Amino acid sequence: MSTPVIRRSTPVLFVQAIEPSLDFWRDRLGFQLTVEVPEGDALGFVILQKDSVEVMLQTVASVESDAPTHAQHFHGDKTWLFVEVEDIDKTAAALEGCEIVLQRRTTFYGAVEIGYREPGGHFVTFAQFAR
């Protein structure tokens, strides 16, 4: 039996409102907004992309409207996202003033890491590996 081909994995982060998270992802980290789906007078779903990394943000209200059966399983859960970066200093400078939840450290597996809570409440750890 052969295993299926996996082409990519993209996290969908559920948030109460998308707009506060745009400063973190788009303005500070340079992600491009590639898809915008309105929900009333605000955004209900977006896709953000930078290089080969893609992140989707969807409001809780949007998922409740779009997929009510799926939404029943959401209980305010938050995601921990691990993102490898080329330059940890440049990343930290871009996120200066954002809430740090994991102080900068060097791990036993050779990464320098720093973790933030993005405005939607998700934990994002950025890591630079020695090359």
Do you know the CATH architecture? Roll
For CATH, the homologous superfamily is named as 2,3-Dihydroxybiphenyl 1,2-Dioxygenase, domain 1
Give the low-confidence spans: none
Q: Give the strand content.
A: 35-45%
Order of helices and strands: EHEEEHHEHEEE
What's the total number of strands? Answer: 8
User: Which word captures the global form?
Assistant: globular
| Separation, N- and C-terminal Cα atoms | 36 Å
Q: State the name of the first-level CATH class.
A: Alpha Beta
Return the average pLDDT rounded to an integer: 90
Number of domains: 1
Rg, Cα atoms, Å: 16 Å
Q: Enter the CATH topology name.
A: 2,3-Dihydroxybiphenyl 1,2-Dioxygenase, domain 1
Task: Assign a percent range to the helix content.
Answer: 10-25%
> Biggest sheet: strands, sense, closure?
4 strands, mixed
Content-based structural category: alpha/beta
Strand order of the largest sheet: 1-4-3-2
Helical segment count? 4
Domain VOC: 7-129
InterPro entries: Glyas_Bleomycin-R_OHBP_Dase, Glyas_Fos-R_dOase_dom, VOC_core
Protein name: VOC family protein
Organism: Tahibacter harae
